[in-house]
Amino acid sequence: MSFDKRVALVTGSSSGIGEAIAVAFAAEGAAVVVNGRDPGRIARVVARIRDAGGQAIGVRADVANKSEVEGLIASARDAFGRVDILVNNAGGDGSPKQVEEISEDDWDRVLGANLKSVFLVTQAVLPLLKQQGDGKIVNISSQAGRAMTILGGPAYSAAKAGVQAFSRQVAREVAPFGINVNVVAPGIIRSSPRLDSVWDNVPRELRARYLSDIPIGRLGENAEIVAAVLFLASPGASYLVGATLDVNGGRWML
Ligand SMILES: NC(=O)c1ccc[n+]([C@@H]2O[C@H](COP(=O)([O-])OP(=O)(O)OC[C@H]3O[C@@H](n4cnc5c(N)ncnc54)[C@H](OP(=O)(O)O)[C@@H]3O)[C@@H](O)[C@H]2O)c1
């Protein structure tokens, strides 16, 4: 799949799934905008892409903050002149809590990183995509948006369900401009050593019960999310509008 001459902005690409997506786009010829909040992690991913012969810039921005998002889009445009592909990947839930333990700040932080960010970056990039008459937006939700999860909490689930609903509505709005908006909803993915240790800390019985609900019988890998994202960002996905790809080893069928 070639993304030669395409520009891909991947939010939250300084680690985990986002890093794997950014590296894959660069390997397929795209110029990539790497984003996160930690300059050191961003620099590491940019160097990884450049060392492999790819093209990338790093932009530090909190994607839950409107003015920082505007700066992010301006930096992308200044560096590459356009944006063809936006992957709204930033997010996660550092401290899953039960409903009575969630503070207002927790709620705002989780909804900010996982849902408000999708709204802000989408809104900021749309004028560029409309001007070009072409564009792909892929939003990363989660199976937590539709079913109970053992690694998230109510705030995370609400945010990820919101990503799916938001995406369908926007997909309908912008399809006439040649812009496709779709969603990837991963199951639990071994995205980084940090995720591995979170998973390892889940009680053994709960882990076994969770795995027995997955027909494939294992957690997912970054490459399996990357494949879905690259497909949705490719010309081959031109007739997909507002779809959610559930990349979860078949957990839905149960
Ligand atoms: N791993 C899974 O099992 C799984 C399952 C379903 C869905 N997902 C979703 O997949 C996405 C990636 O998850 P992951 O497992 O790869 O997590 P991760 O390794 O923690 O990566 C999250 C990325 O998002 C960035 N980020 C977080 N908040 C941000 C903000 N406000 N502004 C800018 N960047 C921000 C982080 O960088 P900084 O911290 O430096 O900002 C990091 O680059 C998330 O949306 C997550 O909800 C993951």
UniProtKB/TrEMBL annotation:
Pfam families, alphabetized: adh_short (PF00106)
Entry superkingdom: Bacteria
InterPro entries recorded: NAD(P)-bd_dom_sf, SDR, SDR_fam
Family that this chain belongs to: Belongs to the short-chain dehydrogenases/reductases (SDR) family.
NCBIfam families: PRK07231.1 (NF005559)
Name assigned to this protein: Short-chain dehydrogenase
